Amino acid sequence: MDLRLDHVTLVYPDGDATLTAVDDACLTVPAGTTTALLGPSGAGKSSLLAVAAGLTRPSRGTVSIGGDVVLTPATTVARSTRVRLERIGMVFQSPQLLGSLTAVEQLELHAHLRGRRPAGVRARAMELLDAVGVADHAGRRPAQLSGGQRQRVAIARALVGRPEVLLVDEPTSALDHERGTQVVDLIIGLARETGAATLLVSHDASTLATVDATVRMLDARIEETVDLATA
Ligand SMILES: Nc1ncnc2c1ncn2[C@@H]1O[C@H](COP(=O)(O)OP(=O)(O)OP(=O)(O)O)[C@@H](O)[C@H]1O
What we know:
β9 (about 215-220) and β10 form a beta hairpin. This protein has 6 helices and 10 strands, in the order βββαββαβαααβαβββ. It is globular. The model has no long low-confidence stretch (mean pLDDT about 90). The relative contact order is 0.20. The protein has one domain (about 5-225): Rossmann fold. It starts with a strand and ends with a strand. The chain has helices at about 45-50, 75-85, 105-115, 120-130, 145-160, 175-195, and strands at about 5-15, 15-30, 35-40, 60-65, 70, 90, 165-170, 195-200, 215-220, 220-225. It is an alpha/beta fold and about 230 residues long. GO terms for molecular function: ATP binding. It comes from Isoptericola hypogeus. This is ABC transporter ATP-binding protein.
């Protein structure tokens, strides 16, 4: 399913004034493809991702998944939480794993919270851990994994609910260049396999050689879209 942002604006209160963090952003991420969102610090990338995730209500504009308008300025918190649980997977800058759970249990808990039936969840979790290259560590807790392995578990966890949209914030910031490139390539491959429309915020353009498209933000506005597939 495609992810589409139409004329999304996000305005924060700023003392007596306001601050426009996202200004009239229009963007489509086709199903199964990965778009990288680049731009300097403060450009509005995380704010745009927060709107797409239903974590922050847009001040204007809409977010659609597969042609359904799912988030608007009038969307309730209960509704945006439901959209996030049912249709969106997220990977944060730090993996945010639960210290007491093993890798496979992190995925099982997530599937449970997303209302998946228990039958088949363990098999699906193992399949995803295998796809991200950490199946051998399924029984380990986060403290027994490297930073890159933890990030891979977080990616597998984001996909266990079979989300239509995958939103990824700076997945490589804690990794060296080689591992960062591996993680980005992994996300791109999984997006293709699962059909998830994937939007990935990154500071590091050097890890993004294989993304399908790149969007740059500057001063709250989307500056340009470069379609690397046809460039
Ligand atoms: N909760 C908030 N309340 C008020 N202003 C905010 C809030 N969150 C972000 N901002 C402001 O909105 C603007 C965009 O911030 P945002 O975090 O989206 O940028 P970014 O491009 O993700 O930056 P970075 O790369 O440093 O994470 C900045 O001027 C920031 O100070």
